[in-house]
Write a structure and sequence with these properties.
Layout (H helix, E strand, L loop, with lengths): L1 H12 L5 E10 L11 E2 L1 E14 L4 E6 L8 E4 L13 H12 L8 E7 L9 H16 L6 H16 L6 H8 L4 E6 L4 E6 L5 E7 L7 H20 L12 H7 L6 H25 L3 H17 L6 H12 L3 E7 L6 E7 L3 H16 L4 E5 L6 E2 L1
Parallel strand pairs: 4-6
Antiparallel strand pairs: 1-3, 1-13, 2-7, 3-6, 4-5, 7-8, 9-11, 9-12, 10-11
Helix pairs in contact: 2-3, 2-4, 3-4, 3-5, 4-5, 6-8, 8-9, 10-11
The chain binds alpha-D-galactopyranose.
Alpha-D-galactopyranose binds next to helix 5.
């Protein structure tokens, strides 16, 4: 694979590349839409992701090329032109990170050529965009010898997404991609950024990701809408409570104060965030106690809450997950990521995996009219130079 990419670099830029980097995609096992509500998340990095090959230049030009968007060709952009430009499409993500680095006082003083290739399905909710962002951060730190920690690369990547690209995401994706560890998920408290690794030993079961292949058309604006609904709910609760984020409340405290939230829809959004945060903590405990069945039940409950209270699933994800629940050998299944299309994640006993893929795939195609794509996921390490 790397040799093929090196040949590609030479073909595209006419010179040999100097360095190779990789950043994974991520899948979240539980803890959805909690990361901008001060709650916990439990994602892991995948073994598939995005590669970057680079070579520094002597001038002020940065040349971007992605094999995944080869029709866009080479985009040549001056270092001093790091402003959002719709025509630059995917290159706005690396541009945003360069912009965020410069904003933090890290001056990029020469240009470079960069070739990107990703094997994360695009727009599938496995964080292909956060993967390019963190990848760019790792590239910049290395090429320009910046003394920056991985956590600060993660933060700069989130700033790029929030302030440059304009999606108000939390920190989960960038964190999982930067800090991922082979065979471990990360319990991250997004309020304090305290985290712990939790080894994922599924004793004869696998993580199966299924892509609905639904285009996530309005996903970004819907995402921002959910975020502001939570903010409004918090504002209402703050009229009587001294809290800074929704997830400071547990289920009981929420029920006691639910009446403070003026709008019923916003109350359901808040309910999801608060219950999901508690579910995440319970799920990690269950895993520690080797109670994988309970972990699965909490995954299922997470989906129901995302479907009914948070309303981010949609027909494709619901169909995929509801078929999965009926299959033998399924320990748990839910949507993963932002929702509105994208992927589901299921834990399936190994001896049932082939059957699961076949049967869920067939039934999904019959009901929805197009195919889902399945991946048996391996948990890999975070972003790095290869
Ligand atoms: C997207 C965002 C994350 C997180 C999830 C939902 O992936 O980028 O920050 O909010 O949705 O859990």
């Amino acid at each position: 694979m790397i040799n093929k990419l090196k040949d590609m670099f030479k073909r595209v830029y006419g010179e040999d590349s100097e360095k190779v980097f990789f950043a994974p995609g991520r899948v979240n096992l539980i803890g959805e839409h909690t990361d901008y509500n001060g709650g916990n998340v439990f994602p892991c990095a995948l073994t598939f992701g995005t590669y970057a090959l680079t070579k520094k230049r002597n001038d002020k030009k940065i040349r971007f090329y992605s094999e995944n968007f080869d029709e866009l060709g080479i985009m040549e952009i001056d270092i001093d032109e790091m402003v959002y430009n719709k025509e630059h499409d995917w290159a706005n993500y690396p541009k945003g990170v360069i912009w965020a680095f410069e904003k933090n006082g890290m001056k990029i003083d020469s240009g470079f050529d960069i070739l990107i290739y990703g094997n994360i399905p695009n727009g599938a909710g496995l964080s292909s965009s956060a993967s390019i962002e963190v990848l760019t951060g790792v590239v910049l730190a290395d090429l320009f010898n910046f003394d920056i920690s991985m956590i600060d690369i993660v933060k700069a990547s989130q700033i790029a997404e929030n302030q440059f690209v304009g999606v108000n995401c939390g920190i989960m994706d960038q964190f999982a991609i930067g800090m991922g560890k082979k065979d471990n998920a990360i319990l991250l408290d997004t309020n304090t950024l305290k985290y712990q690794y939790s080894s994922i030993k599924l004793d004869g079961a696998s993580i199966v990701i299924a892509n609905t292949n639904k285009r996530r058309g309005l996903a970004d604006s819907k995402y921002n809408e959910r975020r502001s609904e939570c903010e409004t709910a918090l504002k209402d609760l703050k009229t009587e409570l001294h809290i800074n984020s929704l997830c400071e409340l547990n289920e009981e405290e929420f029920e006691k104060n639910r009446h403070l939230i003026k709008n019923e829809v916003n109350a359901r959004r808040a309910k999801h965030a608060i219950y999901e945060n508690q579910r995440t903590l319970k799920a990690v405990k269950a895993l520690e106690n080797k109670d994988i069945e309970l972990f699965g039940k909490l995954m299922n409950a997470s989906h129901v809450s995302l479907r009914d209270d948070y309303e981010v699933t949609g027909i494709e994800l619901d169909t995929l997950v509801e078929i999965a629940w009926r299959m033998p050998g399924v320990i748990g299944s839910r949507m993963t990521g932002a929702g509105f299309g994208g992927c589901s994640v299921s834990i399936v006993k190994d001896e049932f995996v082939d059957d699961f893929i076949k049967k869920v795939g067939d039934e999904y195609k019959t009901k929805i009219g197009h195919e889902a794509v399945f991946y048996v996921a391996q948990i890999g390490d975070g972003a790095r130079k290869l």
